[in-house]
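just leaving the lab so this will be short. what follows is a protein written twice so to speak, once as letters and once as structure tokens for the fold. can you read through it and tell me how you think this chain folds. anything you notice is useful, everything is just below:
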Amino acid sequence: MARAAGLGFARGLRGGLRGGAMRQEAAIGAGEGRGVARPLAWLAGEFLAERSRWPLWLPVLLGLGIGGYFLLPMEPPVWLGAALLPPFLGLAILAGQGSALRLLGIALVAVALGFAAAQLRTATIGTPLLEKRIGPAAVQGRVIEIEARAGDWRLTLDRPVLARLSPEQTPRRIRFTARAAPDDLRLGDIVRVRAVLRPPPGPAAPGAFDFQRHAFFEGIGGVGYAVGRVERVAGEASVRADFWIAMDELRRLVTGRIRAAVPGEAGAVAAALVTGDRAAISEETLEAMRGSGLSHLLSISGLHMTLVAGTVFFCVRFLLALTPLALSRPIKKWAALAAILAAFFYLLLSGATVPTQRSFVMTGLVFAAVLIDRVAISFRLIAWAAAIVMLIMPEALLGPSFQMSFAAVLMLIAFYEANRDRLASQRRAGPLRWIWLYALGLAITSVLATIGTTPYSAYHFNQVAVYGTAANMVAVPLTGIWVMPLGVLALLLMPLGLEGWALTPMGWGIEAIIETGRVVAAWPGAVLAVPAMPDLALAALSLGGLWLLLWRRPWRHAAVPAIILAMASPWLVERPALLVDDEGKLAAIRAGPARDAPLLFTSGVAARFTGDVWLRRETQERRRLLPRSGMGVDEGIACDRLGCIVRRDGLTLALARDAAALPEDCRIADLMVSLVPVRRRCPSARAVIDRFDLWRDGAHAVYIDLGGGPQGIRLDSVRARRGDRPWTPVRPASRRR
């Protein structure tokens, strides 16, 4: 219903926004004459003068509705989003033409549409989550995804059957790693294995990446590892399965022939670029590409899809231009259609992952614009692409791939739009000037794309590649001019067995890209570590960036202070004094009251993934351990084998590792944090966090905020941030102490 309403809403959008503009301007002029405050009149005038840009805010309004849905602390009634659409649509229709109410109604329809789309997606794509760890237990299901990795396999099973679980409790899909599996395992096979499974892990800290929500929208309700070998039971015989089996076999065949023709790391990267198989790329290469800002080249995205489609488009158009057809037939449209078909084949060959699907939608719209004689690259086109993606996959709004892709594209289109006349005047330039302009264009493109994606890289990955622009100025031209066109040629030559003619020189280009990554990553200060950025700062930065890019008049510069403040927020916000993981295996205490004081960990090896997330969010290179028993006091921290006592700003925090520490700590602590259950009263404690709270509410963060109230202690937890949603485990309510 939400998507159908979106089509009707889109048809009436342009007329509703344009109607009555002259009457509104007259009203503003009259308001000024009657003494209406000049700033308000100026703002209204600026807004009306930008009316041609109003449709560009459609995806932003959709995003507000989607974001509002995901921010709710509990799941709203399933009918709420659909119920909001009719009254808002009625307001937009019944309000007088050109009135502010009509504009408000249109905006509310867009927000409600985004909200309804997110609700619909949750209701149709979600899955039950495992409530607790199970196994080793018998598991049987159909293989729908195979990822061969160094030393093991990662398999995703559809329609699993789990011992001791009813169909209503069984997730739609499960994912697990296995050390042994049949070499000829293929999609559609029914397999049986004994495995240990558990719910997808929640955020490692309040505000950290929510893998549980990510898995929910992929339909994955359990993750784990196999105990023993994966055994094939039978093959799946269906039209759909046969198609995807054929595509999987083709993908494996192409990957194998690429690696045979191009050995080593270059072949592994070539396979990643053509088929999306990154399994053979070494960790050393991955780290070098991350440190140099080139990791985006290893994941099939809009850049790769555009390069493949663009190569086909220009080659087909060039070849047709050599024939008499160029005089009487629309060869440009024929080339655009060939580009769309090539992009669709590339989508299937690369595994049709969600980011690749989104890239195909964006690329397809560009060439569809050519088919209907519209401008291929424009803000309106990107606005519609974003709207379509958000209506189909609302959860994509929260992911780094969506955010970084559209941020880079918006920056480039804004630059192109501002310099369109200047660029058009250079079309008849000579060859040498064309080379200079191309080099300058690559440099500007790299700089703008880096600026656009840097905030999102800082938010999601807590690091920024300082020299990414320099690396991309070498790697992106190599990829666009040399590597990807040769990859397309290799696919065309593969049926003839001549792919080596294209793959060998393609490997030379990839080796140059890898070497560029290694050299740049080795430069001093190549990676800038960034502390965790608040969610509110990212929202302010995104809206500020949109305000700056989508409007044209001087009022758009009002967003600059908000953008600067949001970028500085990681170094301004308060940091937790203590962190505890959700399983009670790891805790970390800040070494002192200063914001930049390091975290001291209870263990050097426990909860490795969680500890790595904490280090990254704190920009800390390694774990520093709390004082051992008998080492005395360090920065107000005293520890023994039972736990630690922290004295900070007149408060006493107790961290108990053993139940034997509870009788004494409960008499002196203002805050009691226990990695074991607390089954007694703690008379001195203003707050208590124990093993039950961690199990129920997830990882906790503790802040010392003497100005925030009489308690002086502020608690935050994963559950407090996320609320009770379909992708969060169901836990009993907290008990009082």
Notes: The longest strand covers residues 134-149. Residues 120 and 558 are 36 Å apart (CA to CA). The first helix runs from residue 2 to 18. The chain has a mean pLDDT of 84.
